[in-house]
Amino acid sequence: MALLLPLRYRSLTLSSALLCLPLTLSASQWHLSFDNDVVIGQDGDYSNGFVLGWQELPQADFSQAPWPFNWQKQLRATTEGTKQTVQWGAKIYQRLWTPKEIEYDYAQPFDRPYAGLLELESFTGSFSEILAQKNWFSIGVIGPASGAQTMQEFVHKITDSTSPNGWKYQVENQLTVQLAYEVDSLFTRQPAGKDSQWELSGYSHNMLGNFRSEANLGLTFRWGDDLAQSFGQLSSHDGHYGQYSNSARQRGSWTVYARAQAGYRFNDLTIDGSLPYDSYVQIQHQQAKASTGVIWAFPTWSVSWSFDLYTKEYESDSDKWHGYGVLSYSKQL
Hints:
The chain is mainly beta. It is 11% helix and 46% strand. The chain has one domain: Beta Barrel (Lipocalin), CATH 2.40.128.140. The radius of gyration is 20 Å and the shape is globular.
């Protein structure tokens, strides 16, 4: 019966569920993250993202996990004899993409279309000092029901930025279902002066769903303190923020990192979704991404900043690279 509701009403119902789910749980860490391309001084491509998330603090097992996470934990491979902790959580994630010229009030068939996505996502993971496994399951909606148009118009109004005038030509409403899995494995960890270490690890990150399906391999370099306690908390999964404050020293800890990956993207609704006009944009299947950032963590809170670079996502894009910044804050409650 729910599928017979208008998409606009369904988006309100989804938003209400997104806001209420974490409030019914025994929250341990909340986090806010903001993605924006203002750091490169131009609009276009991936433009903005907002995350409100919740995570349980590390536990010995999933015995205390609420029922929605019990089936998802089965997606992990077993690691007998390995000392590990587990985590679970959920988040709301809204993202939007635009063509380069947002002041135009007509369709742009040779540029990427306007697109907005609103998701509710659940997460489970297991972590040790040398191996981490994480997985995510999300449901959402792409299109006007995501509320992305309202978000960008509001932000651009209060910041006196260029008014986006082409949202009437955005990707049309469609429900999305996504599953993602990531595994990190340590190669080496070495001392690097007083109270600090450096480490090199490898990872794979894969997604399957009607929004995006892709497979990636990458490397991570980290330098800082308490690296063993926070191994695997970094992720290439969009909008994910790990747990850093739980193991931080009273005086605080820090981590500087760099990540790089390459992969293949099979589908992308922000490029090939249904549109009210004929688009000549085709997906760029080969993809690469790099990020660098810094994390400061204290016993009850943490803050991080990163800069992400990614290759063009459609073949006719005249720019080979795009970038955006991410600012995140977490607090234990």
